[in-house]
């Protein structure tokens, strides 16, 4: 730890809890949690482990369909995230609780209410990752024949977020007088929303008084231009996808530039790339853990997942031949971030199809650190110090083991080096994201 | 306790938890819970008290607007009910958790998911009271200029419930194979929903596997013809409004007849009128409790509430004169049940305006029993034995005191008489509603 440790930024860590873990074959392992996915005690255990490690938040992704093409190959969704986080609020005391909400399929009044409710229930720990969804299958569960186009989805997302914030501001705490001889509420202080937009009309005010955080914390995960703009305009936390330090730095700089141009302090936007870690007592043990999970992966499954990522029929690809040429990013109409990652892996590693599948098997192209607790901590510091990240959204390949390993072995090293909090300084999610100083705890 | 005790039906009891209690002036009392409405621990305390009493369920009502005309006169909504019940699921072990969902403002996929999630989280204790909402103010929070008409709302409600049940049936538990060497799900067992209706298109299947109860329990509270039909067709529990035994019996018989005509066993529909109780060690103490709360009530508030119930400007009414004539039920376009009750009170009691306000102040015309634990228990038995109710939806005038009084003093008498369970026989809400036999516990 050098003399400049005091001025080096503290690191932010979220747990992205997903199924049996982010590795596509995690559920096939003999000790997997596949039978516990509907058991709230499993999720409580993950949240408590993350809280024991002092992580900023536990984050749940979401989707609006069963995912017919893939559900035979492994679990995706099980419990519903908002109700799950409401339960987790009472199993934890300090850790942030971040849900995903699709602005394409939710309306602002329901979302604003449930998120404000979650913020009350958790004492100020609610966050929401606003997404615009990805598939026609999801649209067909919500009275739409197909997914609206990218521009339409992002237009709706902008309006959705704007209505959310107006609703959260509409019933200030000070409006509650609770005067036993007079009024319960000073109606003069209620602020009508009167949002009339292209997608939603919302009169307001919200029927939930302003929650502890005022506004629950907004997260964004968009990789496209409009997604980055939305992040730069509103988000306090950004979940990024980056395979390597250079692309992470480019992404973070771009989001910070956009925020700066919108008049925001870029330091108010905490950028956290997804991070898959395989941690072992030795380098060899870590690699063995990775290999053991990869071993469980049926190759044709991975090939089909790849077909989804690249929007191309991969069934004729030869496993041990180089990856065939793919169209440039500009011609791809699906989720941009993941496709860009595939292109970057191909460009940087020139892999065979089989090798590419290996890179993608855990986390679909997110940064992957494999090694001892020290080497993983080193790499985390290196990314943060290089301006590539403000921290990471941890995507353990197998749960609960992956987060236990990280909390028990990597976190203490980061604490020792003065880069991560020992215990929480504040009680709200926003206070965790803001903390520049690492409390001694 | 007579020899026929063994064949007399067991009694069902729900706690309808609302704000500081159902009396309009409850929040003005010196010991009121007005400062705790946003504190989940308050709701946990209510749920635990109800569970200590062995009640079937705790029920939360809901509305989709702040209620601008009235919010100065007392609290209405605060926390959001579904997230609240998800938290309560982890503070309790056996009691049912019933939320309200508006079919006018919710879409089936979101509702089906969150209710299935709540059923998983609670281990099979979720229920939902489907309502069609009541005000234009609510509509304006959901991109509608005004509330749709009665027929349209009930058409939508029918379709909503039908889509909910199809979604809940769409991913049978047996479809999860979790075969480490094969498939996670047998996709052949997934049942597409393919609902194409007037109000919703839902492809399905749901992305939550079938919850412990299969289908969360459906409740209904409609008083109108279409509301009763909906109850008769789908509901396993009905929350009724009845001022006196005769109207309760007529309502219950009508719902049972409709169920019978639809081919259902009427005993599968548990009808629970709302019940306000003031319990005291003596008759005089009970009456004093009622008087003390009535004393806190600003008269002009009650008069304005009455105007809402009867759809008439009451501002010119003289407090100590008889209630002016009101139009017959057929001409009233608002909520039918409450209006019918007002007409019935007027017809049976010929009250002055002030007296009518007194009857309505707690619970808005629901049955009100005032007396000792013995006399309240007697009256409960009398209604059930007369076929006027299968039990009651308890609406304590002030909380938490009202439910503590009931659980500590009335429940033991009903248990002693063999009319109410001592401890739960089952673990699901449906098992509580089904129980004909009172377990010795």
TrEMBL record, chains A, B:
Pfam families: Bac_luciferase. Keywords: Flavoprotein, FMN, Monooxygenase, Oxidoreductase. It comes from the Bacteria. CDD domains: Nitrilotriacetate_monoxgenase. Residues 32-388 form the Luciferase-like domain. SUPFAM superfamilies: Bacterial luciferase-like. NCBIfam families: FMN_nitrolo. PANTHER family: ALKANESULFONATE MONOOXYGENASE-RELATED, C2H2 FINGER DOMAIN TRANSCRIPTION FACTOR (EUROFUNG)-RELATED. Belongs to the NtaA/SnaA/DszA monooxygenase family. This is LLM class flavin-dependent oxidoreductase. It comes from Zhihengliuella alba.
């Amino acid at each position: 730890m050098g003399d400049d440790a005091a001025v080096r930024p503290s690191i932010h860590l979220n747990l992205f809890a997903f199924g049996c873990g982010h590795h596509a074959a995690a559920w096939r392992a003999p000790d997997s949690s596949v039978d516990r996915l509907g058991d709230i005690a499993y999720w409580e255990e993950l949240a408590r482990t993350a809280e024991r490690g002092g992580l900023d938040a536990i984050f749940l992704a979401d989707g609006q369909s069963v995912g017919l093409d893939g559900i035979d190959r492994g679990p995706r969704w099980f419990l519903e995230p908002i109700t799950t986080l409401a339960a987790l609020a009472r199993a934890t005391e300090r850790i942030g609780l971040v849900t995903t909400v699709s602005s394409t399929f939710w309306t602002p009044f329901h979302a604003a209410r449930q998120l404000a409710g979650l913020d009350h229930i958790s004492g100020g720990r609610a966050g929401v990752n606003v997404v615009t969804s990805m598939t026609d299958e999801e649209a067909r569960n919500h009275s739409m024949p197909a997914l609206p186009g990218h521009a339409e989805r992002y237009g709706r997302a902008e309006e959705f977020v704007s209505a959310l914030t107006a609703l959260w501001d509409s019933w200030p705490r000070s409006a509650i007088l609770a005067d036993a001889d007079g009024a319960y509420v000073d109606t003069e202080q209620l602020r009508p929303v009167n949002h009339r937009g292209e997608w939603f009309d919302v009169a307001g005010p919200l029927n939930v008084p302003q929650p502890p955080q005022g506004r629950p914390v907004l997260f964004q995960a968009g990789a496209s231009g409009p997604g980055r703009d939305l992040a730069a305009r509103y988000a306090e936390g950004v979940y990024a996808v980056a395979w390597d330090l250079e692309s992470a730095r480019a992404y973070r700089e771009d989001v910070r530039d956009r925020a700066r141009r919108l008049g925001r302090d870029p330091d108010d936007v905490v950028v956290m790339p997804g991070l898959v870690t395989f941690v072992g007592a030795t380098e060899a043990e870590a690699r063995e853990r990775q290999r053991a999970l990869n071993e469980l992966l049926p190759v044709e499954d991975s090939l089909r997942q790849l077909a989804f990522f690249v929007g191309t029929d991969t069934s004729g690809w030869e496993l041990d031949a180089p990856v065939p040429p793919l169209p440039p990013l500009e011609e791809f109409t699906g989720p941009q971030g993941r496709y860009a990652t595939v292109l970057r892996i191909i460009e940087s590693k020139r892999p065979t199809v089989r090798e590419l599948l290996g890179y993608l098997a855990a986390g679909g192209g997110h940064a992957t650190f494999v090694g001892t607790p020290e080497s993983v901590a080193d790499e985390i510091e290196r990314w943060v110090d290089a301006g590539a990240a403000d921290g990471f959204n941890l995507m353990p390949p197998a749960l609960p083991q992956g987060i236990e390993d990280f909390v028990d072995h990597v976190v203490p090293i980061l604490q020792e080096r003065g880069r991560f909090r020992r215990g929480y300084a504040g009680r709200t999610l926003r206070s965790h994201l803001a903390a520049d100083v690492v409390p001694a705890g």
